[in-house]
Design goal:
With 330 residues, this protein is α/β, with parallel strands linked by helices. It has 16 helices and 12 strands. Helix 2 runs parallel beside helix 15, helix 4 packs parallel to helix 5 and helix 5 packs across helix 16. The chain binds 1,3-dihydroxyacetonephosphate (13P) and iron/sulfur cluster.
Length: 330
């Protein structure tokens, strides 16, 4: 199978790679030759985070994507993130190592169903969490991330009804802290819904000196136990600036790499999931589809490429830019 056929059939490129190759060094070499930039999310495996030009949360990655000056953006994250980078960079090539790197939240929100919901509620403004397809963003008025969701919702006049899609957990949390009554889409993150409250409380009992920090994609009962709730970047900032020495971390385990680098002297305990006693279930299988091998081949062949039809891109750009503009306000 040639490269194009592999991408069509499997969504990524695979070919034998000389095992003596230092893949990180090779990727860095290719990156320089091709004037590429690697943007990586905190949930990527440590080796990928280490070779990235920028590692961040969804907001940081969108802001960085709006700033980059390069020919190629290699996105080490999931599909909706690479699409957001493409929406902001129509003239740059955006490549994603594995097109199967989706997201349960993005999948839960079908554009036709959102269109129908909008038709039923024509007076509602649509705020969409960035974890959604370009087509869904194109149907939305404003995009938000977990970093800026409160600020975005607060920017909408109080008497203006809102549809919030697709994360019901984030939506419920924002309703609670803003006093709004947004109409919530019924989507959820499979990784954050896997945390076990019983096991979490047991770990908290065993470590009474630990603070619980949680991502707002987690379920309400988990959020109720949390001393701090915030985006991945917010959680890292919290452990850096807070005086405690121990934290139970309720989000995808990839964050522990950057977090531990920032606070090498502090103890970080991954929140337990339903399945077993390891932290394996708090790993996002989509995020972990990216490997150094796939990154290397992706940069070598400059494929798979992520594209967005121009009519959809222009509409989605409006809602993404609206978010970036509100987010930048003091
Ligand atoms: P943030 O990095 O914006 O906190 O989002 C977490 C997430 O689940 C991304 O898919
Ligand atoms: Fe989607 Fe959850 Fe994975 Fe983030 S962690 S990409 S929200 S499935």
């Amino acid at each position: 199978m040639n490269v194009a056929e592999q991408i069509q059939k499997k969504g990524y490129i695979s070919e034998p790679i000389d095992s003596s190759l230092d893949l990180s060094a090779e990727i860095l070499k290719l990156k320089k030759e091709k004037n590429a930039v690697i943007l990586a999310h905190y949930y990527q495996e440590p080796a990928i985070q280490e070779i990235a030009d920028y590692v961040g949360d969804s907001l940081g990655l969108s802001q960085e994507a709006a700033r980059v000056d390069c020919d190629i953006i290699l996105f080490a994250g999931v599909h909706f993130m690479a699409e957001t980078a493409k929406i902001l960079n129509p003239h740059r090539k955006v490549i994603l190592p594995d097109l199967n790197a989706g997201c349960s939240l993005a999948e839960s929100c079908n554009p036709d169903d959102l269109r129908k919901l909008k038709e039923k509620h024509p007076d509602h403004v649509v705020i969409t969490y960035v974890n959604a397809s370009a087509e869904v963003k194109a149907l939305s008025d404003i995009v938000c991330t977990s970093s800026n969701a409160k600020k975005i919702v607060d920017s909408v006049p109080e008497n203006q009804p809102i549809i919030f899609a697709p994360d019901k957990n984030l939506g419920r949390y924002i309703n609670k802290i803003t006093g709004r009554n947004m109409l919530l889409w019924d989507g959820a993150c499979i990784v954050h819904e896997a945390f076990s409250i019983e096991k979490l409380l047991k770990v908290a009992q065993e470590h009474p000196d630990a603070k619980i920090i949680a991502h707002p994609e987690s379920e309400e009962h988990i959020l109720k136990t949390a001393d701090y709730i915030g985006s991945t970047a917010g959680m890292i900032h919290f452990v850096e600036t807070d005086e405690s020495q121990k934290y139970i971390v309720a989000t995808e385990a990839g964050i522990l790499h950057e977090m531990q680098k920032k606070v090498p002297h502090k103890v970080l305990i991954p929140a337990p999931s339903h399945e077993d006693n390891t932290c394996a279930c708090s790993e996002c299988a989509f995020m972990k589809m990216n490997t150094l091998q796939k990154l290397y081949l992706c940069l070598k062949y400059e494929q798979p490429e992520v594209t967005v039809p121009e009519d959809i891109r222009l509409k989605a750009l409006k809602s993404v830019n609206r978010m970036l503009e509100i987010s930048a306000r003091k």
